[in-house]
Amino acid sequence: MVNGPLSSAEEPAERIDGRAVAARVVDRVAAATQRLKTEAGVVPGLAVVLVGDDPASQVYVGAKGKKATELGFHSVQHTLPTGTTEAELLELVGRLNDDLDIHGILVQLPLPDLIDKNRVIEAISPEKDVDGFHPINVGRLASGAGNAMVPCTPAGCLILLRDTLGDRLAGLDAVVIGRSNLVGKPIAQLLLGENCTVTIAHSRTRDLPSVVRSGDVVVAAVGRPEMIRGDWIKPGATVIDVGVNRVPAPERGAGKTRLVGDVAFAEAARVAAAITPVPGGVGPMTIAMLMANTLTAAYRRVGRTPPDMS
Questions:
Q1: 110 and 195 share a domain?
Q2: 2, 62, 125, 263: which could join 228 in a potential S-S bond, CB 3.0 to 4.6 Å?
Q3: φ and ψ at 6, to 5 degrees?
Q4: Which residues are catalytic?
Q5: CA 240: distance to chain centroid?
Q6: Which CATH number covers residue 274?
Q7: Under a CB-based contact definition with an 8 Å cutoff, are residues 132 and 294 in contact?
């Protein structure tokens, strides 16, 4: 946890270790899963649906299924060909909605162009929507209702912030760069719930550097490699970099690449009090929170209060 004033950063920024925090969340999920099995005879069930052969999606789906199995979940993967029709996918979603052994449904995005992703998302039961994308869950989060399924990446960002700042989030100025439904809008809602004063900025914000410089907390989710420069960061700020961008790395050899975030890490680390690296920051939290959401859905199914994973 960051100590001392927020107004200055005399030493290099603390690296926020997303891997360590994610491991802690996974350990809590594992313990709560065992309690649910012992006390209620319920095994959390997660169904992941992949349409097509996108290599990145295959990796993500494989990692999710592996983690679910490690935790003792009932883990199911449905891999459908690229030519799957929207009607066929909706029929599968309907079957999973009715399957009492499945508590969480995740349809991996992106979907083939001929399938309307919004129609598919809306077809998933809100109680099984462990991605938190269904309009009912979006509305619950925006209204402050306590029973929303929160999207995994924003939920993970908030846990990292709480772990870093403790009870000092209230009253801070937070700048979210990015307005997507996946990250920008939900993390803004979560920060409002923590009593931050929140500004949502984006690539077309007038004088974006000065807006970002006002933030005690900066969440970068704009999808542009190293767009946020070090001199945009307020001294002593806490920076959460959601971006994952692959850029050329000729120093590693011909055709090689490396991962960078939306923030110019080396520059920002000289100014910020704490910052997430890429990789190793927000990324590990996403799968951890998917497992937590699945467990939450299983607890709610049997009328039990889900455990706190933060």
A1: no
A2: 263
A3: -85, -10
A4: 64, 108, 131
A5: 12
A6: 3.40.50.720
A7: no
